[in-house]
Amino acid sequence: MITWNEKQFLEDMPDIELFKRRVEKSLKDVMTRGISSAHGRDMITGYAYGELYDWDMYFENLFLSYFGISQYCRNGVEAFLEEQLDCGFISRTMGRKYPKPRHHFKPFLAQTALLGCRQEGKYNWLEGKYYEGLKKYLEYWIWHCDADRNGLCFWDGSDHSGMDNQSLRLGYDGVMEYEGVDLNCYLVRDLWAMGELAQELGKEKDARLYRQKAEDIAEKIDRYLWDEDTGFYYDRSEKTGKLNKKKCITGMLPLWLGTIPSDRAKRLVEEHLCNPNEFWSNYPLATWAKDEEGYYPDSREGECSWMGATWIPTNYMIFQGLRIYGYEKVALKLAQKTYELVMGETETREFYNSETGSGLGMNPFWGWSTLGYMMLYEIKNDYMASDLKQHCFQHVGKSAYTMLSINR
Questions:
Q1: Which residues form the Mannosylglycerate hydrolase MGH1-like glycoside hydrolase domain (predicted)?
Q2: CA-CA 20 to 30 A from 335: which of 149, 322, 361, 371?
Q3: Which residues lie below 8 Å from residue 196, measured CB to CB, with a gap of 6+?
């Protein structure tokens, strides 16, 4: 099914034949069981029940990029933009299983568009309504989700963030209070991506404005969300102006931006990320610090738990941040532990117990957890698929699904 590019593979990749079988199965699953249609376009999802989610779409397409499959980026962006309201709002889900009519699409839409455009070298499809739609979607975040006008945006509640049950951090739906570290990091990257798209389309003024806005938010993350006493980034209440000092994996996401001072990066890594009493669990990284109120590494009553379980997309984002700041040994160890985690089950799983390594949630799962197979590949090949400046994408192999999906 996959013609592997052996030149891109290093011989010391552990369990290489098992790796190939697992990746081939994941690719087959997503291309045969994960296709949903919306607005006349085929789209991918990691969920057997067919729901389409915002940030999942970005990470799922990152996985497909390793095989030269890019068309689902454009399909997904166009389909979600077809759902856009006049005010710019786009619901973060598309489907009937879990509608989220009050949750604006997380800031990954421009990144997904850029990922597809970069791979295909084509940007003109964005001209007109889709480019304008992306502008309105970003403006909605900036103008409707920043009540105190300090330049940082807030989540509706924990469910909106995608970290469903972190109500201790963000409250429940309708709170609309907490300026999320995660949200504003995603927004910086999406504004950077929009700047890249504007540049490619010859919109120089827009490109400058988006890049400047991204830099402004990055500076405000440092100014408002950092706590010097504990050496960590926290969400901030717009109502009180105080930090909500709950140590969550999102407090380390500023590493992914590469904009924070090196001394702060050092504190994040040495005092928190590598701390076995906080995030460096048996199977890191725990999504909620072990010494925090409410921590548990498992799932209760079938919930999607972010209160201490390990999720692959957060590992992936922080893994890239470690590399950006030169923590190659820590990044390699995290990649190895993540590889061990996903290979430890007979099927790819939705998330994992951070202490035992047992798989949790959907079984099988062919969504964003597939990136757990690729982190070790990336660091061994000095490659970063999520780099927004990336023009040359590495393919671990080619698949028949590349042509089949184009001809659907």
A1: 54-369
A2: 361
A3: 114, 207, 388, 389
State the chain's mean pLDDT as an integer. Answer: 95
Query: Which residues does 209 contact at the CB level (< 8 Å), separation at least 6?
Result: none
**Res 56 pLDDT > 80:** yes
Q: In this structure, what token pair is assigned to residue 196?
A: 């890249």
Residue 12 pLDDT: 66
User: What would the 3-class secondary structure string for 136-173 be?
Assistant: HHHHHHHHHCCCCCCCCCECCCHHHHCCCCCHHHHCCC
What is residue 207's predicted lDDT score, i.e. its pLDDT? 99
Q: Report the pLDDT value the prediction gives residue 408, as an integer from 0 to 100.
A: 40
Closest CA to 76 of 48, 124, 34: 34
Percent of the chain with pLDDT over 70: 97
Please provide residue 78's backbone torsions phi and psi, each rounded to the nearest 5 degrees. -60, -45
What is the rounded CA–CA span in Å between residue 187 and residue 189? 5
Indicate the DSSP class of residue 248.
Answer: B
Burial class (CB in 10 A: 0-12, 13-18, 19+), 284: buried
* Domain residue limits, the chain: 247-361
Q: How confident is the model at residue 317 (pLDDT cuts 50, 70, 90)?
A: very high
∠ CA 120-201-109, nearest 5°, is 65
